[in-house]
Design brief:
mainly alpha; 3 helices
Length: 76
């Protein structure tokens, strides 16, 4: 990300690099997808992610569904 703005990574290459930097030894997130799967399928996933995120980047607004997250605090 450049220029300090809050936009998504613009290129597939940058998205793929970010996925390849994931630590596969960490536990999966609330979506149930293990980081190892994301890392190993980075070349396939980046194409799909660009299809999903491209309209949001073009129109400059996020879909309303992205704000309907179910966030559960985890106390340690």
């Amino acid at each position: 990300m450049t220029g300090g703005d809050d936009k998504l990574p613009a290129s597939s290459e940058l998205s793929q690099d970010l996925l390849l930097q994931l630590d596969a030894c960490k536990s999966m997130g609330p979506d149930g997808i293990h980081l190892r799967i994301l890392k190993e399928l980075a070349d396939i996933i980046t194409g799909l992610l660009s299809i999903i995120f491209q309209p949001a980047c073009e129109f400059g607004e996020d879909p309303v569904d992205w704000y309907l997250a179910n966030i559960v605090p985890v106390f340690k």
